[in-house]
Write a structure and sequence with these properties.
By secondary structure, this protein is α/β, with parallel strands linked by helices. It has 13 helices and eight strands. The two termini are 30 Å apart. The structure holds NADP nicotinamide-adenine-dinucleotide phosphate (NAP).
């Protein structure tokens, strides 16, 4: 993972939306089992997912599986709190108080002694960066977390964290968790380039399928049992289910068919082909989805320079960098 010594599997598994809202313990157990048996060693979670219930579910599965704790890594993230609209002022954000309390709560819900990675889920404009870096360093020294990271921070904010860490001899962030997929590319392919070259952050990228859009499942409408049909997710559907994006995905689906692979496998393989991606976090509500997504590893050798160019021609989403 970046310049750290931590080894993450190139595909990993996360619980956003699915755990507790869509799937129960038995499906979560089955999916995590398939993931682990296929070599996935990183499971991603956050305090805000299903308002704490996602961590509790993952904790129950891990307890039931009884895998050797040294054989997998697990994360949580703090920022939004887990009480939704009931959050009081100190029950969210990146203050020392919330980061420490949220970490302790995540350990309890996940039933583990330490988190392998602890993310600041968003930057907090109200907390000095010094307070954040000192707190994460202390949590590492206390053995409650092993590495810390950022999620959806700007390149400038990440570099500020490194500057403070350098100034006070503290441990800086080792990893960033940005969105990255064929439709959302700027951070990984433009903004962070200098960050990768200097401080060398790892990346655990999210929504490799743009919430399922890049699986082609929305090409002919919105299936009833899909994420975009869920109550309260109109904001997400409205972001992705738009003609321009759908038309691109339809053309990409046809191209994937020509290659003899699914468009989901192709899209995921495309993300992990980027050397600045440490791991793509998969999401799934069904066994068949996860199995199909794991096929991305077999699709990878099919992404020749010619195929990559054809994908560019279809998607037209490559960020424009200065000519020089
Ligand atoms: N740091 C952050 O701010 C942040 C934000 C978002 C996510 N994340 C992390 O990233 C993980 C992955 O994100 P994501 O769930 O958005 O990933 P994604 O791969 O873009 O979307 C996953 C969803 O798409 C559908 N799907 C997946 N594979 C499919 C297939 N082969 N065929 C048809 N449908 C398929 C399923 O939803 P349905 O079956 O419901 O349609 C599945 O839950 C999350 O679990 C979380 O750990 C982090």
């Amino acid at each position: 993972m970046g310049k750290s010594g931590l080894q993450l599997s190139v595909l990993s598994f996360g619980s956003w939306v699915s755990f507790h809202k869509q799937i129960d313990d038995s499906v979560a157990d089955e999916l995590m089992g398939i993931a682990y048996d296929n070599g996935i060693n990183f499971f991603d979670n956050a305090e805000v997912y299903a308002l704490g219930e996602s961590e509790k579910m993952m904790g129950r599965v891990l307890k039931n599986k009884n895998w050797d704790r040294t054989s997998y890594t697990i994360s949580s993230k703090a920022f939004w709190g887990w009480r939704g609209k009931e959050n009081k002022p100190n029950q969210l954000g990146l203050s020392r108080k919330h980061l420490v309390e949220a970490c302790n709560e995540a350990l309890q819900r996940l039933q583990v002694d330490y988190l392998d990675i602890y993310f600041c889920h968003r930057p907090d404009k109200n907390t000095p960066i010094e307070e954040v870096v000192w707190t994460m360093h202390h949590l590492i020294q206390q053995g409650k977390i092993l590495y810390w990271g950022t999620s959806e921070w700007s390149g400038v904010e990440i570099m500020e964290a490194h500057r403070v860490a350098h100034q006070y001899n503290l441990i800086g962030p080792s990893v960033e968790q940005p969105q990255y997929n064929l439709l959302e590319r700027d951070k990984i392919e433009n903004e962070f380039l200098m960050v990768f070259n200097t401080v060398g952050m790892g990346t655990t990228i999210w929504s490799p399928l743009a919430s399922g859009l890049l699986s082609g499942k929305y090409n002919d409408g919105i299936p009833e049992d899909s994420r975009f049909a869920l109550q309260g997710f109109d904001w997400l559907k409205d972001r992705w289910v738009v003609d321009d994006k759908l038309n691109k995905v339809r053309r990409l689906t046809a191209f994937a068919n020509e290659l003899g692979i699914s468009v989901a496998s192709l899209s995921i393989a495309w993300t992990i082909k980027n050397p600045n991606v440490t791991t793509a976090i998969l999401g799934a509500t069904k066994k068949e989805q996860l199995t199909e997504n794991l096929n991305a590893l077999d699709a990878l050798p099919k992404l020749t320079p010619e195929v990559m160019q054809k994908i560019e021609d279809i998607m037209e989403t490559k960020p424009k960098l200065p000519e020089y």
